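quick one: thiamine diphosphate bound model?
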Amino acid sequence: MAQEITLKDRYGYMLWMRHFELACLEGVPTREIHGELHTGVGQEAISAGMVGFLSKEDAMCSTHRNHMHAIAKGVDLRAMLAEIFEKSTGICGGFGGHMHIFDPSLKFSATGIVGAGVPVALGHAYAARLKGNQAVAVAVVGDGAVNTGAFHEAMNMAGALSLPLVVVVENNEWAISVPFSASSATETIAERAPSWRAHGIRVNGLDVEEVANAFEAALARARSGKGPSIIEAMCYRFRGHFEGDADMYRSKEEKERRRSEDPLERTKETLVARGLATLEELNEIEKSVVASISEMLASVRKDPSPSGADATRYVFAE
Ligand SMILES: Cc1ncc(C[n+]2csc(CCOP(=O)(O)OP(=O)(O)O)c2C)c(N)n1
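yep, here:
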């Protein structure tokens, strides 16, 4: 079911993802967004690499850092932005906020509980098996999630039953202030895969084509009954764990060096070097994305907040 998505299209998605995140940042100092806001700035190539391969019937279970995964699954951008800005027009009526983006019509869900999306995805994969259809379940997690019991249990069951589960691990090397190297018994996450009869691959998560190729192969494997896969996509979180994180645990030198490896710049350079686009053309695309998102944000800001009278809605049976 893969659609023909070109590298230029994927770059366009990366722009939407980056500028969507930057728009969200605007709501923090103004206190339009309460609680912790986690953005995926710097990790765009992973989500953009997943675009175009999933149907409505395929499930995706995401995390606290979920905006770009939702964009990859096709969740409505305005409804998501409204949810993040706590508006009643939001995809969950403004009740969920940024960590709880749900779109049942697309089988997209998120959770703030680290690792907890994997067993939910496992349930979707098992349902697909029972229904005998070609659907696949994708769980996207961070490297901190792979050391939770939920992750191990779900992977074991997926391997035992050869279920159509694809786990994409965004290994940004840090779980808040804990480096992956200090918390994992194995050097990589991909190498753990055979212990669950899963296929494991580590890819450069800054390279959108590498991610897309690995994702397409893992989906084909899952759809043909060959069982689960783990894609470990190496990347770097450009901002603090959440907006407001003093981020003292990563050195200034490390942050500067790793931020200079920007996946958007990398893709732009590839497009120009291959003669697939000119710099001017790509700059024009970026300008139009920035204008569209800024218009969307201005419009969302005019929407109403949920009313106090609705505070207990969905809490008690009506
Ligand atoms: C079960 C559980 N334990 C701890 C937390 C607190 N917590 C929130 S995010 C996070 C780190 C997650 O790191 P990682 O999985 O690598 O994802 P990243 O934030 O890097 O995207 C922790 C420990 C939580 N939300 N859930």
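The pocket of thiamine diphosphate is lined by residues 64-65, 112-114, 141-145, 170, 172, 174-176, 237, 241 (CB under 6 Å).
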